[in-house]
Amino acid sequence: KELTAKEQKLNTRFLADVDKTMREGASQCCYYACANPAVKNLYKCAGCGIAKYCSKKHQALDWKWEHKVECTKSIPQFVLEEIQSDRERHLRGDYSKIE
User: Can you tell me the distance from the alpha carbon of 99 to that of 97, in angstroms, rounded to the nearest whole number?
Assistant: First the structure.
């Protein structure tokens, strides 16, 4: 199924945000229960460099809660390469399905 112009515009904007986050990391604390996620000084995950936290405590809690299974440090290299290839293809506007 081809994307409509509206879907492509939304997808392009979303993918640009994802690309920025992949390059620069999160812009706020990634711990789901953080009461003040938009602080200026954030600690970066040493594994992926994407997730950031307002405190070492939130980083440890999020590791146990969620980040341990989603951190790129935990994902096999061939899967990361596939994801990166798909992202680059989508950023070029190629939304075709790969079999």
Answer: 6
